[in-house]
Amino acid sequence: MSAGPDRARGPGTAPALVVFVKECRESLRDRRVLLNALVLGPLFTPLLFLVLMHLIVGRELEKAERPLPVSVIGAQYAPNLVEDLRRQGMAQRPPVADPEGAVRDQSVDLVLRIGPRFAQDWNAGRPAQVELIFDSSRQDLRGAIDRLQSMIENTSRRVGSLRLLARGVAPALMAPVVVAVRDQATPAARGAMLLGMLPYFLILTALLGGMWLAIDTTAGERERQSLEPLLINPVARGQILLGKLLATALFSMSSLVLGLLAFLAVGHLLPSDEPGLALSIGPRFILLALPIMAPLVLLIAVAQIWVASFARSFREAQTYLGLAQLVPLVPSILLMAVPMRPQLWMSAIPVFGQQVTILHLLRGETVNLPGIVIGVLVTLAAAAGVFRLTLRLYTSERVAIAG
Amino acid sequence: MIEVHDLVKSFGAVRAVAGVSFTARDSQITGLLGPNGAGKTTTLRMLYTLMRPDSGRISVDGIDAAADPMAVRRSLGALPDARGLYKRLTARENILYFARLQGLDAEQAQARSSELIAALDMAALADRRTEGFSQGERVKTAIARALVHDPRNVVLDEPANGLDVMSTRGLRDVLRGLRAEGRCVLMSTHIMQEVAVLCDRIVIIAHGRVVADGTPDELREQSRQANLEEAFMKIIGASALQGLA
After folding, report:
1. Residue A217 — very low, low, confident or very high, per pLDDT cuts 50/70/90?
2. Number of Cβ pairs closer than 8 Å across A and B?
3. Which residue of A62, A145, A166, B91 sits 20 to 30 Å from the alpha carbon of B43, by its own alpha carbon?
4. Is B84 in Cβ contact with A1 (below 8 Å)?
5. Is residue A305 domain-resident?
6. Which residues of A touch B97 (CB under 8 A)?
7. CA nearest A26: which of B175, B240, B86?
8. How far is residue A208 CA from its own chain's centroid?
9. Which of B47, B50, B1 is closest to A395 using CA atoms?
10. A403 to chain B: nearest residue by CA?
11. pLDDT digits over A312-370, tens only?
12. CB of B79 within 8 A of CB of B141?
């Protein structure tokens, strides 16, 4: 060791780059980071989506097409009615001895009981009664009950009309008002309603991808007592912070890109050939979604670092960031609960604007370029603002001192 | 050379440092001795510009710390109270990281790291990840990274903390080596034996003030005690002795 004067200082790599490379290298060596940021995070949401979509779509198909099993008691009293119901999709099951008991213990879902007086009333033109026995507290039967009731009403209405006609009365008199449903949703838009949560899931993927680094490089560094030695180096705090931010953003962005690719791969498995579910998740979607999301990823990363910098330990930071994950859920829920017309001012709200734009893209609608530009600028400005807040925190003595 | 003049620092109502002045010269080991809570760590933190003093002046090799903190940081090697390493990096990578942050280029950083690894007898553990290092191995790595930019002044906060006998002896050799190279070495400690065997000059701090400053011989003379430990007792006063090992 020679105690010479300071050695000549080389041209020098920007300190931010030194910090960035070191944080990336260290994180890549941690199996938990790799698993969370680069495997589980990106795969979790597309798979969850796949399952959800199949469940939702499967349900709807079930409602419309599957034969409806109904145990019929006294079918011999109303052969015409039973035949008519069967044509509408009822699957007749043999009668049960104790219908109330059978429904209560759930061995039978639906029982239709036709009394012996049915034929007599029917023929006399009096209201002929049938009994429907079911348990309305069973959520899974809601659809089936409605369906059977509307089948019976259909038959009743048709027979009623025929009777009126036979007596020379126009059946139209029975319907003073009719509603004609003209649903203006394009098939793709209806599918996108189901996918209304997708923007949130994309943001969540980015959040999860960067979270570990945001915590480890701030609260973690403080907890492990390496922050104080780090800050003693002759490097501006802004450079150190910038390096940490870039590393966090890179992991967050990688997670998002992998997530989008997973969506692309999974996209073929989505039941999109069903009418109303044709969505535009293709290479075009990904190419447009990335530049829209990139500034948001930066904002998320810097916000995570800011929040985590208040914590004194890894665990404390995890608690804070866990709560912060719910913030981007608010606009998603808002958009689902109160469908709003996309307007320009929405683009100016970070997180919200991106969600609106991504939804647009999913619906295969034309992209609103001014909106995107405003979104990018506002989000970048917000990221710069949070960066300054964090920097102020880092130049205070409080953060510098460990423990 | 490190010159500290009338340093004051308060945290709220607590006056942690209440007017500390001393000089640490080149080619000497200066010991900052005092019980726990005497203000040693706070003084050192102001020295390596992690904290700003409320008043007072610090100069390192003639550079004013308030005016040019970056230059002071470059001319100081510091082993702070917190000495955490990055456990997923090897010892060498830990040292290299700080070398690059000190502004060395890749080649210089490699050369200087290898030099320190050899000098500190760390060859066997240099390329192991620091996770699972013993306390002594960790302190060695932390010292290496503090010296990586070849600073003329070395400041160590309780360097012997948590070290076993063997590591403590190794540390003494390292500090004597630094002195032999003409560097200015300033270390804080609350262990009297440390200063007794190592230091050329002793600055005793209690309650945020310097209560004595001199060579071990001078201190013995001043207190009229033949034994250094007795000298401390007399100088600091029994009340401040609680917490003194």
Report:
1. very high
2. 120
3. B91
4. no
5. yes
6. 18, 22
7. B86
8. 15
9. B50
10. B82
11. 888 999 999 988 888 888 877 777 777 666 677 888 888 888 888 887 787 777 777 88
12. no
Across the interface, of B49, B74, B152, the residue whose CB is closest to A3 is B152
Classify residue A1: in a domain, yes or no. Answer: no
- Taking alpha carbons only, the member of B192, B172, B188 closest to residue B180 is B172
User: What is this model's ipTM?
Assistant: 0.91
* Torsion sign (Cα): B41, B96, B154, B227: positive
On whether the pTM is more than 0.80, the answer is no
Helices (H), B40-129: 40-47, 69-75, 91-101, 106-119
Which residues in B lie closer than 8 A to residue A232 (C-beta atoms)? 48-50, 73, 76, 78, 80
CB contact at 8 A, A254 and A37: yes
pLDDT given for residue A6 in this prediction = 44
Q: Does A234 contact B97 at a Cβ distance shorter than 8 Å?
A: no
Enumerate the residues of chain A whose CB falls inside 8 A of the CB of residue B156.
none
Cβ–Cβ gap B86/A18 under 8 Å: no
Residue B105 with chain A: CB contacts under 8 Å: 10-13
Q: State the Cα–Cα distance between residues A249 and B158, nearest whole angstrom.
A: 38
- Asked whether residue A317 is domain-assigned, the answer is yes
Facing residue for B104 by CB, picked from A3, A10, A19: A10
User: B10: closest CA among B49, B39, B40, B50?
Assistant: B39
Cross-chain CB nearest to A7 (options B108, B146, B178) = B108
Residue-wise pLDDT for A92-137, tens only, equals: 888 888 888 888 888 888 899 998 898 888 888 888 889 999 888 8
A12 close contact with B: CB closer than 8 A? yes
* Closest residue, chain A, to B151 (C-alpha): A6
Cβ contacts of B93 on chain A, cutoff 8 Å? 22, 25
Q: How far apart are CA A33 and CA A213, in angstroms?
A: 8
Query: What is the pLDDT, as a whole number, of residue A67?
Result: 83
Residue of chain A with shortest Cα separation from B87 = A26
* C-alpha of A330 from chain center: 12
Q: Are residues A243 and A361 in the same domain?
A: yes
**Domain with A134 in it:** 64-182
pLDDT value, residue A279: 59
Q: Do A314 and A373 fall within a single domain?
A: yes
Does one domain contain both A235 and A300? yes
Q: Is the pLDDT of residue A5 over 50?
A: no
Residue B161's pLDDT is what? 86
Same structural domain for residues A300 and A264? yes
Give the three-class secondary structure for A98. coil
| Token duo for residue A272 | 């999109």
In whole angstroms, what is the distance from residue A331 CA to residue A329 CA?
6
Q: CB–CB of A50/A266 below 8 Å? A: yes
Cβ contacts of A227 on chain B, cutoff 8 Å: 82, 84
- pLDDT on residue B244: 46
A3, A25, A397: residue with CB nearest B181: A3
CA A61, CA B138: separation in Å to the nearest integer? 65
Burial of residue B165, with CB atoms counted within 10 A of its CB: 0-12 exposed, 13-18 middle, 19 or more buried: exposed
Residue A239 shares a structural domain with residue A221: yes
